[in-house]
Amino acid sequence: MNFQSSRRRGEEGIAVVIDFLLSNARLVLGVGGAALLGIATLAVKRLIERAGRAADDEKVEQKMAESWEELSLVSASPTLIRKGIEGVVMKHVAKATKQQKADLCQQPQMLDVQTKPESKSKRLQLCALTLQERLQQYYHTRAALSPQEVQRAQSVALDICTEIQGFLHSRHPDMPLGDMTLGGSLLDDLQVVSADHACLLVPLQLESSLWRLIPGEETLLTHPLHWMVRRINLEYFPKGRSYWDRYLVGGYLSAEAVVNMFSKAVMETVNWPSISSTLDCVVRPVLGGPDLRLEIRPGNAVEGAESDYQPLFVSMLPLLSEGDVVLTAQPEFTSPWVNAWHLSLYPWETQRLAQLDAADNGYRKHTLKILKAVCRQNPALRPLKATPLANLILHLSVSESDWSETSLDVRFQQCITELIGYLEQGALHSYFKPAVNLLSGLSEDQVDQMGFMFYCAVSEPEILLI
User: Fold this and answer.
1) Is 385 a member of any domain?
2) Domain of 359?
3) Per the omega criterion (within 30 degrees of 0), is the bond before 336 cis?
4) pLDDT tens figures, 159-188
5) Final residue of a domain: which of 321, 343, 365?
6) CA-wise closest residue to 198 among 152, 166, 165
7) How many domains does the chain have?
8) Burial (Cβ within 10 Å: 0-12, 13-18, ≥19) of residue 44
9) Please, what is the average pLDDT of the chain?
10) Is 199 within 8 Å of 182 (Cβ atoms)?
11) Angstrom distances, CA of residue 33 to CA of 149, 150, 460
């Protein structure tokens, strides 16, 4: 074979074989095996391209032989794939990443004329940082929000809250509602990257003698997070005695009917231009979605013009509470069941993390915010939301007791390893409701992409902090 003269044709032939292997990998190896195969194949492609650029025919043949020896591992069982290819992949990923870091350190010298001295020192400092220092830097520059930004977003959200509550009291004085408050990550110092969303809690007041909250396990749905609210004592208190009887469907209070009511009563009825002029900002309802959401922009923002200001989204969240149980009207979680209410585990998870950190001065919340920022800023990891990450840390806290600041790098790397295991299994069970799989909403492609990123970060976790 005259590789030197027909190099391009040989590369295309190899590419066809590799594409065929990838297209059929999932059928043979499953999701986890296909992810590993994709990583291994990428490493092999890079080796082939590197070998194709070599000048010496003997070196080319040697590199090609080594590449095909590594590729031969693909035909092994999934166990051998995990033990064999993973080592090969990690070796090449580590080598490639170290080369990139070396190039980054050398780049100021190569571009001496074009680069300023300040840029040189910053890049050299970046190369010299340890993972612990890099995580702290990432937290302060990317994850954590400034107090001024948080205060500004909270102030705007509270103004909207006051306006909506005043409107409902004037237009629907008989509607039994509690005091509306802010909630969610913006209030609990768990929001990262930018203060761009807030949650307005709208508590519904139910008569305890007329309504009963049914746990999800006791309903026909048998889903731990899908609760129902049954109308009781109809023989003594017929329909009409409670304000919320008008939203009954099949003897149960319908979360979807309540959301539709607020959509018509608030989103489609409030004079938003008038409120916009009062608050000196542009307030618009986001219609057409399953949630009740408002978009808020500064008053001097020009339509269609680019601006550094991120819009603030405020979501109205109708809820029911009884003891430590909080049920929310979120059809996006309970669809297609119109009567189901979503059991929110967020208060339990947030409270448990705070308790653990308070007991040992730990950095669990710190770690969670870094993980949230990493997933939000990486397109491949964006489907991984805050709830699975919080439960990951809660599960890890059972076996690991040292969550001090000095162990931040160790815990971060351990979180990556644990996430790979959960993605391979296709399941990350809720800390408080073990029957709930928090990864069930991910597609196979999303699992593959996230698995690829986390596998690459095993040996070089800094790639997630770029």
Assistant:
1) yes
2) 347-464
3) yes
4) 999 999 999 999 999 999 999 999 999 999
5) 343
6) 152
7) 2
8) buried
9) 81
10) yes
11) 44, 43, 21
